Sequence to fold (68 residues):
Amino acid sequence: MLILAECARSGFIVKEDGSWNLAPGARELGRFLAIERQALQTLGLDRRAKPTGRSLAELLTAPTKESA
Fold:
C-alpha cells in the first residue's frame, strides 16, 4: 500500500536527463505484488473456481434479474 501511495503522490514515471524512467516504487511494484500473492497462496487464500452447477450454455440462456 505504501508503494501505491507513493506512486499516487509522485507518479509512476520520473524524467531524468531528457528521458524518462519508472519511479523506484513502481519498479519494485511487480516484485512486491508477486511476493504478496505467493504469501496468500501459502496461507491457502489463492483464487479458486466457484462451481456454478450449470453449463455455460445454460448460464447464457438463463433470464437475468434485470430482464425478469
Q: What stands out?
A: The beta strands are 13-16, 19-22. The mean pLDDT is 85. The longest strand covers residues 13-16.
